[in-house]
Amino acid sequence: MSILGLGFDATDIPRVRDVYARYGDRFLHRVFTDGEIAYATRHRDPVPSLAARFAAKEATMKALGTGHSRGVLWKDIEVFRHGGPPQLRLTAGALRRFDAMQARRSLLTITHSDALAMAQVAPPQRSEVVIRVTAPDPAAFSRPTGNTHLLRRLPKTLRISPRPVHALR
Q1: Rounded CA separation 31/139 (Å)
Q2: Helix or strand (DSSP H, E) at 128
Q3: DSSP characters over 49-72
Q4: Tell me: domain 7-122, CATH 3.40.50.2300, correct?
Q5: What is each CA distance from 62 to 29, 33, 55, 121, 123, in whole angstroms?
Q6: ∠146-151-152 over CA atoms, to 5°?
Q7: Is there a contact between 93 and 73 (Cβ–Cβ < 8 Å)?
Q8: Pairing between strand 87-90 and 77-80?
Q9: How confident is the model over 101-131, as pLDDT tens digits?
């Protein structure tokens, strides 16, 4: 598997705690989506979750090769979970850059301790297998058969994009 970009970020949780204490909702609504805020505030201490999502956003910007520029904004990147590992949802500028890279999915890993939140993002290159189909010329048959009309309908090239393989649980 080839990697189109790689982003890693480590965020200091006490620093996020200080920013959150100083700016409160202003900080939350400037950086995080409503879904991320709802997820983090369900925890007794929301700051480690916020710091982990902040690290994931930074890592994503690095993987996209933009940083916080070229139209990629904080809220264009959302980290969400639906019973499995965390995933990314990209919109607006982040999605345009992702599409320009011809990426189709991204791999995200997040972890945190008491003092540090880390995230790594890697969009793998889209895999594509090209199969050439060579069909015999129907005119070469000495007598027509009932299936020769099917040969005319076959495409000369089939493109198959394999689906991502998920680990067995």
Answers
A1: 66
A2: none
A3: HHHHHHHHHHHHHHHHT-SS-TT-
A4: no
A5: 22, 19, 11, 8, 11
A6: 110
A7: yes
A8: antiparallel
A9: 777 777 888 998 999 999 998 876 655 444 4
Direct distance between the N- and C-terminal alpha carbons of the chain, in angstroms, rounded to an integer:
22
pTM attached to this predicted model:
0.70
> Each residue of 6-25: pLDDT tens digit?
788 999 999 999 999 999 99
List of residues 6+ apart from 153 with CB closer than 8 A: none
Nearest CA to 36 out of 12, 66, 63, 16 is that of 16
Distance in angstroms (rounded) separating the CA atoms of residues 121 and 64? 9
CB proximity list for 136: less than 8 A, separation 6 or greater = 151
Task: Identify the residue whose tokens are 């916080």.
Answer: 68
Phi, psi of 132 (to 5 degrees): -95, 130
Instruction: Give me the residue spans of the domains in the chain.
Output: 7-122, 129-160
Strand ranges for the chain from DSSP E: 7-12, 77-80, 87-90, 107-112, 116-122, 129-132, 157-160
Q: CA–CA separation, 76 vs 60, rounded Å?
A: 10
Nearest residue to 90 via CA among 71, 117, 109, 110:
71
